[in-house]
Amino acid sequence: MSEPSPLQPTISAVEPSTGVEGGTIVIAGTGLLGSGTPPLVFLGDTEVRPSIASNTRLVLRIPSNARTGPITLMIDAQEISSPFTLGEKLAVDLHPVANPVVDAEGIIYTTISGRRGQKVSAPLVRITPAGAVEPLPAAPINPTGLVLHPDGSLLISSRYEGSVYRLFLPIGDMEIIAQDLGIATGLCLDAAGVLYIGDRTGTVYRLPPGGRVEPFASLPPSVAAFHLAPGPDGQLFATAPTLSNEDVIYRINRFGDAEPYWGPLERPQGLAFDRQGRLWVAAGIRGQRGIYQFEGPRSPRLVVTGANLVGLAFASDEQVILASTAAIFRVSFPPE
Fold first, then answer.
1. Same domain (yes/no): 172, 184
2. Residues 119 and 192 in one domain
3. How far is CA 230 from CA 149, 192, 247, in A?
4. What is the pTM (predicted TM-score) of this model?
5. Alpha carbons 329 and 336: distance in angstroms, whole number
């Protein structure tokens, strides 16, 4: 089989092949300029103008009005295409600042957190699988971290009050379970039911079942939030984004000793482990922002491109829920 000529249009790679609005897609190939002019590029039915165009590389940003894939290039009289999965925007006009959470019925819980000290009438919402947004009957100020307890209640941190609440669903009763926690942000539960709470001024607290809150680990202060996730090895993983482009993911052992796990990363935020034990994190690397997946402590790969992503949660093995600073997206992956 003969090799294609240098000007014959071909697509060799689309990286990544999944994204949401604002994400950057890099298309590699040959003959991408055809007779010398940039090709027409479509994401589904939406035309997208490349920001960088050469015979071997196109760079384009996913517009907010795009709805479907694939990517199609119209080069001179030829048409070539490549599969692309575009995440579905489920809800807008929100303000998540950490991971959303998803229950067994596929209901998503997230926040309209507001500016520091701002009282929002319905700062907690649930989103049905069909995309209906419903307010929850509770109004803590600046809700930030969320975690679902095995008993069905929703645990919520307030970065304004420095407290953690338990919201009993669906009746709506709410109680304080911990307070005086500084700027309380990230939350997570480990397999033993221990709750970890991140005070972004520098402390990670632990609250064992039936016990009292106690300091557990120290991290560098964050300008945004501590984000926490229990690892499959029994250790705690955390991010503490700063204004630097050389942040890291931290790994904290059972004694509370923290060490860098991987870096540098640009403003790493929400993180979570999938059922295969792989770590996913919302972060940037060399200006390319989105969701990165780790296969152990090796260089991560960008699996979802997107702007302003702050968190994620797994709805199933094939579906990931993403939170940006203003919206919730649902991304489907083919079974592995």
1. yes
2. yes
3. 14, 11, 19
4. 0.94
5. 21
